[in-house]
Amino acid sequence: MSKSVVRTSKFRHVFGGSAKQDNCFDGYRVTKNANDSQFCAVNTKFLAVVCEAGGGGAFNVTSLDKPGRLDVSAPRVAGHKGPVMDIAWNPFNENMIASCADDCMVKCWIIPDGGLVENITESAVDLAGHQRRVGSILWHPTASNILASAGFDYVIFIWNINTGASVSKIECHTDTIYNIAFNFNGSLLASSCKDKKVRVMNPRSGEVISEGVGHAGTKACRVMFTDEKRLFTTGFSKMSERQYAIWNTDDLSKALKIEMIDTASGVLFPFFDFNTNMVYLAGKGDGNIRYYELVEDRPYCFYLDEYKSSAPQRGLGMLPKRAVNVAGCEVMKLYKLHQKGLVEPIGFKVPRKSELFQEDLFPPCLGDEPSLTAEEWAAGADKDPKLISLKDGFVPTEKAAFVAPEKKASEEDSVPRGERELLKAYHELKAEIKRLEEKLASANIKIRQLEQK
Hints:
single chain, mainly beta, 4-stranded antiparallel sheet, 38% strand
């Protein structure tokens, strides 16, 4: 008689649970933008949500210790001329958030402790370089104030926020860039693209180290590093089936594993926790969140379970590991953005009876101090992230106030950026040409009249 063998794993019984209504955030006018990004970002202090705004782009910022309904007249960060496409908190400065928008600009903002008390329209840093709208932004995992941005002009910029200038410009893509991802120490950058290729690049030189055809479907795909030599992607098959794949970065010609998930149409967003080697998959428009455990050898990935809900998600924000509830054995916390303006915290816990610190569940995690300065990284240095123990709780380190670089003269600001501004400039120039032609015709008539006399 054969015995069924059950794989041993301490994460087999992880379960997800939503917060009570009193601990939720409500009242946001969620953006109607169709861009494939989260529109929601969270750190240990604040929750930011991209909102609908007339005549430009804006987002709300709320302190995590102030749940409840957002006031209709609550202040916003509103400095973009077009809809905001993506937002991201600086991992080494809890008060700095970056945003990118339809106006082709990337901006960095300083949020005061305690949250907003008035509208912020003046950014700390303006990063101009893209010629079309900017779809996604990403902070470097180990170097302070290094930011990557990917635009619809098929270009990736790596910015030094300290100077407001670009460190490198990557122009190897031939179509829309869906998303970008750094590896553990930020020495490599991966991208997924509309041309169906997955690329691994040197972020300083822009050199393509390896590339290969990813998912065969035409819809958006996502990529992230799960190890120095492993990539995890989500996408669609030719038959529009949602699937995930695992790749070896040394050879992207063939996936180590591809598995079909379902036939839903929403883009799958992966979230990875390197402490537990767990991947959480959340589809836009889905109500459920699936989670898997990654292993080194075949079959590389094991399905664990899923969190189920009837309310579809518009986006999700991942809380840094250093802010989870260690006493409650919470290994992951996601903030689920509903279409109707509710943000619902969802905690994923391992059931344990002991109230002692569980060292096997909480190995050292990413801290809030950078390993490198922006200048050291730009010069070619690479270092692993600084890790901290959560045994005695997380204590934020004191940071020096950010000194914003001087903004450049308004010559660049007068250059039209984006399709709308270019179209407006075109019509203005056309009207000016017509006016000058009429003036010239009138002058020619006067000249002829004088010649006849």
